[in-house]
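Quick one, tokens below. Sequence please?
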């Protein structure tokens, strides 16, 4: 039954210059145009027809193609996110060491010191889970590493958003201006709680896989 359910979609190549296809407009994300890799467009299809030879791999293999990219793609997003968090923490520390309020450097205020500490903790936690997921992919393959991939896809964006938000708070109004990259960082990372599967879908998958693992352990003890 699962095999049949996973073969209901196909992928086809549609040339941009084909009759009936019209690019309407590029879509912005939090006001930013996502241009580096082509962006996201609103596209209208009106009676568009392509030859059967444009079918990729074969009929019903769309889900297979998507899943082949999504596992490694999700962990790649997490790796990049951790790099963003490191940059945000660096900005936070530099600002905290330069800015003086109430006669003290910002980092000398306990709340800011705690933000710095919590940021480092969050980054290291996310990094270790990312490494575990990557190791699972290498040793077991993406299909068998589904739980680890889903976990890091939930954990990394949430952790990095927390770090970026702290950095914005330390920088004050400048943190949301074009003088710092923090606003763009926040916009990019926030999309990852939706892209390649929203948090809620991954959490449901984690719960299902965990219950299956627990059931196997319980059965083995009986």
């Amino acid at each position: 039954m699962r095999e049949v359910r996973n073969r209901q979609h196909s992928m086809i190549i549609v040339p941009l210059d084909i009759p009936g296809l019209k690019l309407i407009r590029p879509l912005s994300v939090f006001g930013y145009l996502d241009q580096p890799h082509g962006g996201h467009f609103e596209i209208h299809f009106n009676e568009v027809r392509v030859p059967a030879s444009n079918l990729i791999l074969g009929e019903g293999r769309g889900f297979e193609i998507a899943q082949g990219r999504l596992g490694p793609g999700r962990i790649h997003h997490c790796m990049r996110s951790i790099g963003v968090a490191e940059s945000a923490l660096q900005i936070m520390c530099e600002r905290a060491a330069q800015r003086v309020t109430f006669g003290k450097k910002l980092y000398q205020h306990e709340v800011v010191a705690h933000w710095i500490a919590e940021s480092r903790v969050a980054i290291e936690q996310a990094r270790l889970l990312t490494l575990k997921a990557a190791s699972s992919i290498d040793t077991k393959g993406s299909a068998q590493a589904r739980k680890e991939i889903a976990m890091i896809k939930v954990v990394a964006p949430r952790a990095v958003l927390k770090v970026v938000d702290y950095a914005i708070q330390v920088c004050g109004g400048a943190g949301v201006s074009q003088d710092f990259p923090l606003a763009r960082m926040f916009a990019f990372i926030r999309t990852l709680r939706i892209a390649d599967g929203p948090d809620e879908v991954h959490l449901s998958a984690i719960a299902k896989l965990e219950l299956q693992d627990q059931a196997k352990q319980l059965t083995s003890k009986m």
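The chain has two domains: 9-56, 70-221. Helices lie at 2-5, 62-98, 110-140, 146-171, 182-191, 199-221.
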